[in-house]
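Researcher: Please translate sequence to structure tokens.
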Amino acid sequence: MTATTVKIHQETKSELDQFREYKSESYDEVIQKVIFIAKKSRTEPEVSKQLFDAIEKARARIKQGIFLTEEQAKKRLGL
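Model: Translation complete:
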């Protein structure tokens, strides 16, 4: 993968942070998610609303400490 540097305002970074589902989620992953949601909102607005709702619910669970570690997830998936 080729990487590039992009300058953004601090406020923009803060806005992107609101879309993170977990602390180590990369900005590339966040931006890809936002692009996906934006595209879906044009063709399937109800799906994009469901995605936003799912992100908010996930963030609430993480704040409550209700989540699987990477190791637990691998074990559950048999990896």
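Researcher: Any highlights?
Model: The two ends are 25 Å apart (CA to CA).
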